[in-house]
Amino acid sequence: MELTNENILLASLMGSKVIKQIPRFEAVQNELSKHVLPPVKFLPVNSAAQRVGDSENYSAGFDLWQNDAAIPKGRQFFPLSFYSQDEQTLWTLPWEPMINIEASNRIIKRDIAKKGAGLIGSIKERWSTDDYNITITGAFYGNKMQGQSSETYPRTDMDKLRDLLLTPAKIKVLCEPLQILNINHIVIESVSFPFTKGENVQAYEIKAVSDFPYNLIYKRKTGVLEVGMPVGGAPEV
Q1: Is 76 exposed, middle or buried (0-12, 13-18, 19+ CB in 10 A)?
Q2: What pTM was computed for the model?
Q3: What residues have CB less than 8 Å from 78, skipping those under 6 apart?
């Protein structure tokens, strides 16, 4: 029996005792080759020489350290977009972040002195819904994975995020989970940039709260006061 590459590979995978069964495998394979085209092999071993050559799509100017392009807004599941202060320019985060939303109620509680075992807990006098706490976590990626800092570090995206942080007003946002909760504006409280492994990667974490419009200006009705008329107007009959 001739020890071919296939026989040696089969013996190494299945044990030394299988070497005795190789002639039977070859006999079955020879019978199959007479009736089945093309011949079926028990081992998927390709004996043809493999040539490693240039790919058809290979470009001589292609940079091996080039990073993947940013994900378009249409391919993101829940894209997050920020409007500029004048609400004329829309900036969408190039890579979809993780958004955590936390809601709570403000409750005023009163305890009864000596309430005994029959009265458990406290009396809730009034409550209101607090601001939504929003945490946005993500990362920016530069154009190249290795190279000079001007080529690898995501400077452009960091500049845009810095402008958002320095905005002294509420920021209009556009994101489906926020829209469901009627959150159209947020106020950024803090932004952190933790240490991130990789020359072209910079992680960030934005902590913000929701902002809802309130009309707190009371417009008093104006009129002409006559002599003897109370300041608040004519008395009701």
Answers
A1: middle
A2: 0.62
A3: 96, 99, 175, 176, 177
| pLDDT in the model for residue 92 | 92
Phi, psi dihedral angles at 9 (to 5 degrees): -65, -40
CA dihedral sign of residues 180, 186, 192, 193: positive
- Top pLDDT among 227 and 104 is at 104
Asked if residues 133 and 209 have their Cβ atoms less than 8 Å apart, the reply is yes
**Stretch among 41-55, 110-124, 205-219 having the lowest mean pLDDT:** 41-55
What CATH number matches the domain at 73-211, 3.40.50.1980, 3.40.50.20, 2.40.30.200, 3.50.50.60?
2.40.30.200
Sketch the domain layout of the chain as residue ranges. 73-211
Contact 67, 142 (CB under 8 A): yes
